[in-house]
Specification:
The chain is mainly α. The protein has twelve helices and no strands.
């Protein structure tokens, strides 16, 4: 693959061999499909279009965007390629819809969006598109944060954490904040130190529970959760994915308990805790 002088990949070269020709045809078809989607949205938003689509606002689209992103994650967890294809399409449609809305207001176009993200990705990967070398993934992340801070001036006015969206789910935002702070040396030096902090926060939570002060209990629970997120980070575990996996495991085991109760002619409401615990253990044993 060749690269233009500014670093962008030239994926539309044709005539050299059959592979180049096939790649060019595929790229052109992608562009056509993208144009069709844009025209569908423009038609829906036109005066003769759909009343529902016409009245949508950016605030409306923000909610749909979050919903569709979560459905993409569910499709990834489910492992179905067909489901993932469908949900990616729904998410793409929301993104294009927002771009068309901006186009209507004369703010920017989809072409502007694609050009800007292309330039950003090239700028943030100097070890791929430039002459910089890196030793490992940690250095890649450190360079990424440095480029954001020093070249793009993101976070300079409000601090290092300023560029991390407040609307992120709390668990994801906690890990991103901790990762960002670690790039400037604000971090523990080993896992054992994090474990000591976990034990410290757990001890403080026990005191709060004994005192029965709701505000302090909430605060100490938050501190413990944040420390556990850092423990995940030290073990190269994505905290959100770890919790989602635990959620899936709990849901599967509880569904198993419900099935076993139903086979016995009972509902969870009719069963004792001891009975459900015993069935839970049976389901756990049979997972493998």
């Amino acid at each position: 693959m060749e690269y233009r002088c500014h670093g962008a990949p030239n994926v539309l070269r044709t005539g050299k061999n059959r592979a180049d020709h096939t790649l060019a045809e595929s790229s052109l078809q992608e562009l056509k499909n993208l144009q069709v989607l844009l025209e569908i949205i423009r038609t829906l938003r036109s005066p003769a279009g759909c009343p529902w689509d016409i009245r949508q606002t950016r605030a409306d689209m923000a909610k749909y965007l979050l919903d569709e992103a979560c459905e993409v994650i569910d499709a990834i967890d489910g492992g179905s390629a067909d489901a993932l294809k469908e949900e990616l399409g729904d998410l793409l449609f929301q993104i294009l819809f927002l771009a068309v809305m901006a186009e209507e207001r004369g703010e920017f176009t989809l072409s502007d969006v694609m050009a800007a993200i292309g330039e950003k990705m090239i700028r943030r990967h100097p070890h791929v598109f430039g002459g910089r070398t890196v030793r490992d993934v940690a250095e890649v992340k450190a360079n990424w944060q440095a480029i954001k801070r020093d070249i793009e001036n993101k976070g300079s006015s409000g601090g290092l954490l300023n560029g991390i969206p407040r609307s992120l789910p709390a668990l994801i935002r906690a890990q991103k904040m901790a990762e960002a702070a670690a790039t400037v040396g604000f971090d523990w030096d080993r896992t054992d130190a994090v474990m000591l902090k976990v034990e410290e926060e757990l001890s403080e939570l026990r005191v709060a529970l004994q005192e029965g002060r709701r505000q302090r209990i909430r605060e100490e629970l938050g501190d413990l959760l944040f420390t556990l997120v850092n423990l995940c980070r030290f073990q190269n575990v994505d905290a959100d994915e770890a919790l989602r996996q635990a959620n899936r495991k709990f849901a599967a085991r509880f569904a198993c308990v419900e099935r076993k109760l139903a086979a016995a002619g009972k509902t969870p409401e009719q069963a004792s805790l001891a009975e459900m615990d015993a069935l839970w253990d049976e389901c756990k044993v049979n997972e493998g």
